[in-house]
Amino acid sequence: xxxxxxxxxxxxxxxxxxxxxxxxxxxxxxxxxxxxxxxxxxxxxxxxxxxxxxxxxxxxxxxxxxxxxxxxxxxxxxxxxxxxxxxxxxxxxxxxxxxxxxxxxxxxxxxxxxxxxxxxxxxxxxxxxxxxxxxxxxxxxxxxxxxxxxxxxxxxxxxxxxxxxxxxxxxxxxxxxxxxxxxxxxxxxxxxxxxxxxxxxxxxxxx
Length: 207
What we know:
Layout: H1 3-18, H2 22-30, H3 34-56, H4 59-75, H5 86-121, H6 126-144, H7 148-158, H8 164-171, H9 175-193, H10 195-205
Helix pairs in contact: 1-3, 2-3, 3-4, 3-5, 4-5, 5-10, 6-9, 6-10, 7-9, 8-9, 9-10
């Protein structure tokens, strides 16, 4: 099939799918219909994002929630009730994932508080100091592995304690770009190092 014919055929198919009810799309989804999944994504993503972001107040976190939700929807499509309320199903799934985020943040917060208290007591044993040095080496390696511009911005922010505005002026970037790059760097480091090592190092080195 020629590319232009394929695109036209796909466009016509998507117009047909837009006319389907939620129940019809849910049924087709359980049959592994990728176009039905695409239509569900297009139909609900915007509203679900607003719903999640209203509670999280964090665009990136809300996007992560939606990414995980739709990934799970496809993987577990056989569990979707074809005759059920698809909208209610998706909103409930978003609510549960938002609650998971809050629960995870609460656990991290408790860990950070207890770890900070321990560090403030300043009575690390020899083994503790060895582990601390090992963690420092590990996170420095991961910082070095960041993309060059992201690494430069991250170092200026976290090691030289420059504000986003100062970094933006120094590098000729917008403050939004600087903020986004720092946030992405933190996400990368957290995913590569794990929460415990990541938080411990930040508390000890960047406070």
